[in-house]
Amino acid sequence: MTGRFTDRVAFITGGSRGIGRGIAEAFAEEGAKVAIIDINETALQDTEAAFNEKGYTLFAKQADVTNASDIEAAMEEVVDQFGSLDILVNNAGIIRDNLLFKMTDHGWEQVMNVHLKGAFYASRAAQKYMVEQKYGRIINLSSTSALGNRGQANYATAKAGLQGFTKTLAIELGKFGITVNAVAPGFIETEMTKATAARIGVPFEDFVKANIEHIPVRRSGKPADIANAITFFADEKSSFVNGQVIYVAGGPRN
What we know:
Blueprint: E1 9-13, H1 18-29, E2 33-38, H2 41-54, E3 58-62, H3 68-82, E4 87-90, H4 105-133, E5 136-141, H5 153-173, E6 178-185, H6 191-200, H7 204-212, H8 223-234, E7 245-248
Parallel strand pairs: 1-2, 1-4, 2-3, 4-5, 5-6, 6-7
């Protein structure tokens, strides 16, 4: 199979479901060797079976992004198996939504750990290989929630933090042929948005319709919409695009 990413190796955290799986599929369709890690073993097995059926090359491993040694071990295996690590997508994420006065220490810390500590551990581990080969692409998943969203003080803070992280790594790593950018999705139909609808007690179809009313293109987003932006940043031809945050939300965002 040939494509934009033939002979490239893409490593995606939280890659077994939703946006992460959509990103993994997009890279595989364009010829990349794909590695995914996730804590959900069942979802990993499902994704692995689906990829094998399509003849895609996939490395799938259960790992926790909040554990540095898990990340380092997985990346070492990937490099041993595939020969390089060219693209890292820090996609793993969780929500623990609540209004501030109801938010627990645990709910705050879980979100910070998965999004910020996870991206830090994965990026630190990946850059070692990327610096050595003088090439790399790191793409972080932010969110329109970074601009503020009721009931998401933890999530919004983490996603805003990832934007600062992105811009700083872009400055530090650019001279090594490594670009670092971020994609900030708006409303995307995934298991996570289904969980949000369930939490507030609204049928998912009604939740989708209500959100579409505020989206200029008058449709909800799909994982493929995010994967499209991710693959743009990951493209070898995008080497002069660095430290940027693109909002993929069906309309303008500041």
